[in-house]
Amino acid sequence: MLSCACQYRRVVGHGQPTARTSRSALRARKTPASARIDDGEDRPEYSRSPPMIAINCRSVMLVLTMLALAPASVFGDDMPEPEGFRTENYRAPTPATLRGARVVTTAEAQEIWQRGGAVFVDVLPRPPRPANLPAGTIWRETPRLSIPGSVWLPDTGYGSLAPAMENYLRTNVAHASGNDRARPLVVYCVRSCWMSWNAAKRILAMGYTEVVWYPDGTDGWSEANLPLQLSTPVPRPEQ
Q: For 76-230, which CATH superfamily applies?
C-alpha cells in the first residue's frame, strides 16, 4: 500500500514569526490543508521570505497510483535481449524480440489458433503442494485459465532447470508436437513474464524451427474477449 506523509514546510526562509502569527494559525486550522496555500500576503512577519507550499496528498497519491498501474509492457520496448536466460525478477518488462522466434500480437495469435495445427504451450508457474503439510490440511490449487487446447507445462520458464525439469519440457513438447520440429509452437504465459521468453528460447535450442512467442499471453487474450478454459498441468516429475 502506498503511503504519503505531507506537511507544510518553508523552502528557504529566515524570517521569525511574531505574536501576530497566532491569529493566522487559528484561521489556518479552520481551513482544510488540501485547500490552502500560504502565499505570505496576509502575514507581514514573513514578508521577506519565499512563499510556503501546501502539498496535496491526494494529488501525489493519484500520480503514484497511475504509475504503479500503468502497463509494464510500455516501458520495455527498447530493452535488449540478454545473451542467456533471465534468472531473476521474472515479472518485469520483456524485450520486444526473441532471436529465432516469431513474436505475435493477440490478433496474430488468434489467427494462428483459429487456423489450427499449432500447439499452444502455457508455461505459467504453479506452486507444488508442499510435501510436509500437516495431516488433514486442505490444499487449494489456484485455478488457471488457459487458451483452449493448450498444453500447460508449468515452471519450465525459469532461467535454470534441473535435469528432470529439462527432460519434462523436452518430452512433453515432443509429444505435443508429434515429434515434428517444424510444427508451430506458440509459447505464452501472462504479460511482462520472462517465463514465456525463457521457455521459447529453450525450445528453440532444442531444434524446433517454428517457435512463436506470444508476450501478452492470457492477459491480452482475455482483454480481447477471447475464450479461456480451465486448465490442468501435465504432472511434473516429482508428482
A: Rhodanese-like domain (3.40.250.10)
